[in-house]
Amino acid sequence: MPTNFLGVVYYLALLVPGFLYMVGRERHGPERKLDGFRQAANVVFVSVMSELTVLIGLSWFWIPRLNEKKLLTDTASYWKEGPVQLLSFYLIGLFLASCLAYFASLPHARRVLNWILDRLTLPVFRTEGREDVHPSITSAWWRLFHHSPEAILKNYNGTTISRWKFWTWFKSQDQPSVLTLVLLVLDSGTQVQGYVDTFNPDSHDISDRDIILRQPILRRASDEAEWVELPSEYACFGRGNVIEMYVQYFEQT
User: Where exactly are the transmembrane stretches of this chain (predicted)?
Assistant: First the structure.
């Protein structure tokens, strides 16, 4: 454990990769409320694994003469021999470990891992339709509105979107290639239809959540036969007012 201020700063800096991993999971995955122990365990585990991976990689390919044992057990000697070299190694290694940890939190990293597993697994043991996020930690809303475009369109109309290329692994989920059209039936009997813009990503099926639709937004009251387009770019609806939802997916051209 660190015994001085510099040691505390050094220790906290080593936890940056795990912190970035948690940030990435919160941004690109369902919102989960973990207890303090599990959060700390995730941060420490991801930090250690990413830094060890980078340390081994740098020692093999970039600094062949690096003495890992001495670096970990007698850092002071390394600092006296070459402070600039050690500081450069530390900063570059921390940067690479942080990038690796954040990349591991992205849904696209899970797709890469699934692709690798499919190639390494015998056909009889392969699992079809692997998802970016395990179903056990997702809500019904997440499964409806946050999706793997290829898997959903394959199930929806028997076809698949064009095979994604290497560079699309790094594309953000903020620009999906699938449009989600939803029909909401409200408790008043009114029906509303529009494209999903965003929604509450909580992993629990709670009643206190909202969904935002974007234009064109159509509305039909329970006593009317015609649809009326609302003069709004966006509209928000609470979970407590929604009785039924019907969802369709369309490839964005």
Answer: 6-23, 43-63, 83-104
Q: How do 234-238 and 210-220 pair as beta strands?
A: antiparallel
Q: How many domains does the chain have?
A: 2
- Mean pLDDT, the chain, integer: 71
**By C-alpha distance, which of 205, 201, 149 is closest to 175?**
149
Burial code (b: 16+ CB inside 10 Å, e: under 16) for 141-173 equals bbebbbbbbbbbbeeeeeeebeeeeeeeeeeee
Choosing from 105, 128, 158, the residue where a domain stops is 105
H helix intervals, 58-125 = 68-73, 75-81, 83-104, 107-120
pTM for this one? 0.54
| Domain with 84 in it | 5-105
The answer to whether the beta carbons of residues 114 and 126 sit under 8 Å apart is no
